[in-house]
Each structure stands twice: as structure tokens, then as C-alpha cells.
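REQUEST ID: PR-0412
SUBMITTED BY: lab tech R.K.
PRIORITY: routine
TASK: structure prediction, single protein chain
INPUT:
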Amino acid sequence: MPESKSKIARFGVFELDLDAGELRKNGVRLRLQEQPFQVLAELLQHPGDVVTREDLRHKLWPSNTFVDFDHSLNTAVNKLREALGDSASNPRFVETVARRGYRFIAPVHTPTNAESSPQPAPAESIVQRNPSQSARALHPELDIPIPHRALTRGLFALIQLMYLIFYVVALFRLHAIQNIADSFLPQWAALTLVAAVMITAGVGIPLRCYLMSAAGFDYQRLGEKFRQVFPFVLAWDQLWAIAPFLLMQKIGLGAAFAACAALLYVPFSERTLIRMAYVKRESAKV
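STATUS: complete
OUTPUT:
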């Protein structure tokens, strides 16, 4: 970039720092090889203009270098698009101009040298932005707009309430479960099934009450705590996912299978909701 301008260029949630040789996303450094980095730097010098493949060849490879130019350039552009989350068919940043070259189509901001160099935004500031800012901010790991925390916490709490209802109803109708189990299982297997329902429901009730209260009171370490207990929660939820088959005689095999498939996905949605709600704890590991 010209010496009179800053060595930093910003576009979307990305920031290119030529002095540091870094590409950052929401303040987090991305891994990008030298050739894709140089391609991006060259495109950002001419935003909105077509940079020909020949210009990129002279920029990236000296005249005495013998390489498969077309393949190497295509590889560099593909790696650049992968780092930006872009695509050739629906470009947001790098547009392919057929038989000519490439064009950078996103708005680019290049601050003057008088402006202070931006510091990586702390994760807690991402969480506390106003609605218009958070709508533009992306989660540092999930690459989705960060939603309102009240929404993600509310959905998480509703899932806990759903499981809590499962446990309570199962305990209240334990005799009906015994009859259903006796209809297609040997006596010892039916007793084992009823015992498993009692034990898992008895342990699951306090667990769900804890998770509901933690989400309701916005316990700031809930993300960290949930990661620790997630293997246990996953095993518990996968076990209860087969519960619809106990109702197979009433709802049919197809409906029982569909309900089981949906319940198998639920623990992973719980984990995603927690990651979206507690960005600070998640992004600290990036």
C-alpha cells in the first residue's frame, strides 16, 4: 500500500496488517500462507478494480521462477477464499473475472497513520455490544452472527424443562412403563429397564434444575461447567432418546423413530446454544 496510507486494511470482520503480516478476524489471528496473503494484499491495493492474473504473477513469482503458474495461483486464491469463508459461486470478497483476473468487491477501510492501531477486541465487548453492533459481529468459532443472549439462554432453559417433564412423567407413570416393558421383554429385562428409568430420572432431575437455574440467573461460568459435564449429559440424553420406542404400540414405529432421531440431536444443540451465549469463555481458547 502507498506509504501515505496505513498498513492496515479493514473489510467486514477482517483486518489485514501488512506490517505484522497478519490477517485477523474479530481480533483473532488466522493462519494464512504467504502466497494467499500476498494475493489478498495486492487485491486490497486496488479495491473494486480488476487485478489481472499477469499482474499477480509478476507480484508473486519473479521472472526467473519456473512454476505451474495457473495451478499455483488457483490454489492460492482457493486458500484465501477458505480463510475468508468466501466462495467463487457466491463471492462476498473476491470475485473472479473470467479470463482476466480477480476483483475485491467488499468495502475496504484504510485508516490514516494518525489513527491509532486497533487492538483486538476483547471477547466480553462482543457480548456487551448494542443490538445493531452484535448483528454485524460474528462468533469467533461458529462463523454466525452472535444472537441475543436472552434468546440462546431461553432456548437452553426450555430444553432443560422438556427433559425435566420427561423425568417427572416417567416416574409418575412408572407402572405403565412396567406394563409396556413386560409386553415385549423378559421379566429380568423389564425390571432392568424400569430400574434404569428410575435411576436416570432421579439423577437427571437435579441436573436439569441446576442447568435451568444457572441459565436463568446467567451464571457466567456456565459455559465452562457445561463443557465439563457434557460427556455425561450426552450419554444421559442418548439413553433417553430411545424412550419414544416405549410408546411404539400407540404412536407407531415411524413416529417413534422420528422422535428418537430428533432427541439424538438435542444434546448437540444444547452445546451450541451454550457456546453462543457464553462467547467470552469459548473465545478464550482460540
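NOTES: The CA atoms of residues 234 and 267 lie 6 Å apart.
REVIEWED BY: pending
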